[in-house]
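User: Could you check the structure of this?
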Amino acid sequence: MSKKNQAKRATATVTVEATHTIPQATGLDVGTSGNKKVEPIVLSTTQKKMFDELKTTSSKIRYLAAESFKRGQIALFLNKKYQHVRNVLITPLKTELRITTNATNANTNTATA
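Assistant: Sure, the predicted structure tokens are below.
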């Protein structure tokens, strides 16, 4: 490769690296979820009391969703990623899964007896 081509390649690489932007580590800006503006969550006194009693992040996410807040609002309020909130909300609770499985097994045993 000639020195001229090497110089062009080096310049192009430097230019690409200089103009490349790195996404923020948190993934969310304050007041936005992706490109959409999100209203902040304001809890009433009763809601705040119930919320403070919850121990896990998942239970807090489920509580806020039950109070009709949107996923983006919940993510900003808890300083979590939208994807985390979504995954919690679409995944069934393990205790509910066990109860369903036990009830199914009981029905199967009764039907065969």
